[in-house]
Structures are given as C-alpha cells and as structure tokens.
Amino acid sequence: MIRTENLHKSFGDNHVLKGVSAEFHAGKPNLIIGSSGAGKTVLLKLLIGLFRPSEGAVFYGDTNLFSLDDKEIRAIRMKVGMLFQGNALFDSMTVGENIRFPMDMFTRLSLKDKNRRVDECLEMVNMEGINDRYPSEVSGGMQKRVGIARAMVLEPKYLFCDEPNSGLDPQTSILIDELICDLTNRNNITTVINTHDMNSVMGIGDNILLLKNGKVAWTGDKSQVLESDNKVLEDFIFASPFLRRLREDALKQRQGG
C-alpha cells in the first residue's frame, strides 16, 4: 500500500497540492481523477519520487519515501513499473528489446534469462511471438500492451499508469483497462492510474480519488459514483448527458425500491 499524509507542493507562488491525504491499496486499481490543473500529474510524480513535497510525506508501507537516501530510493524504484501516456517505446528497438531494456539497465541476468522473461511478459499481455517486430509495425493498442509488458518485466510491487487509454478507441480502452485490472489483482500490485476516461472510472474504479484545485474533493469506488450527492463529483462525472441520465435512472430505481 502507498499512502500520503498532508501532501503539499508549490512551484514558486503556485500552490498546486494543498494537504492531500490518501491511500492507494494493493490488489486494486486506484484511480486519480479530476479536471486539468487539479494536480493529478504533480501527485503522480510525487508518488514516484520525481518531485519532492513542499510539506507532507509519501509512505510505501511504513517507509517515508523522502526520508531515504538516494540508494534506498533507487531500491524502491526497482519495485516500480511505469506505463507512460505516450508509451515511450524506442522506435529503433524491436518489441523484445524494448521490453528487455529495464533488465539491461538494472539486472545482471544472462541474455537467455532476459529473453525468457520477455517471452513471459508478452504472454502475460497476450502478444506472444512479436519479439522481432518494431513499434511502428504494430497498432496503438498493441504498443500500449508492449508498454505494459515492459512495466511488468521487473515484477514490480507498484505500477503507475499515466492516461493509459489516451489515443485509443473505446473498445481497445476497455481491453487495456481489463488487462491492467487483471495484472493488478493477480499479482497483488498497488496500481495507481491517472485518467480522464469515465469508462475506466465506472469499469475498474475500485478506489477513486477526485482532486479539485489541489485538494481531495471525494473518495469512493465505482459503486458509489452514481448515488453520490457530492456536488464536485457530480459536476465532473456527469458533464456527459449520457452519464447524467444513467445517474437519474439509478436514483429513480432506488427511490422506487
């Protein structure tokens, strides 16, 4: 589990995060949502340790990330997988080489063992046998799966996903959500997902954190979204007329029951 306590972050006079306290649970997809400028990306970078907080703490288990020295932080980062918004695959490398890259950087495994792990990760994302293709030779959805395979290659305890469905069609987005959810549950990973995708919220939102103006505006799960009377959540989630109608129908059914 990862948790934050009274997390603040300022850049000069710009106070981006204002006392964020939250918990991100193992074995569940933990979603961070909110409008542009709410502080989602800054929070994600603080959780990873790319930024240091102006005040407050980030705990991995019982360990305060920012009380550690550089060597100890590196040891925690070895347990972290990252899925980037734009996939961040190297065009000049094959799919297999892209997935193998973290092992080349951080392990002393033999090439045979590395390649065996690459095959395992490709099987994990249902993409066996494409090791020798280049990213440009596969679809956007397949590139996203390659990114997931690379994020999983070091068997992380923590997985961070920045807008994993960005640029994908709705059907592929659902498949990516289901894949991330399955890997999270199966491996008991603490997964944190930054997203604007309301399908993700309603599909895999087992633990949801809504930010507004750098503060926690609401927490809950997907089953609580449609019946919540939180005004900030309502304005954000139900900006879509379709979702607003869904909520109205759910409220009518509850009142009728």
From TrEMBL:
The keyword Transport is assigned to this record: yes
GO MF terms, alphabetically ordered: ATP binding; ATP hydrolysis activity
ABC transporter domain location: 2-238
Keywords: ATP-binding, Nucleotide-binding, Transport
Pfam families: ABC_tran
Cited InterPro entries: AAA+_ATPase, ABC_transporter-like_ATP-bd, ABC_transporter-like_CS, P-loop_NTPase
Record keyword Nucleotide-binding present: yes
Name of this chain's protein: Phospholipid/cholesterol/gamma-HCH transport system ATP-binding protein
Lineage per the UniProt record: Bacteria, Pseudomonadati, Bacteroidota, Saprospiria, Saprospirales
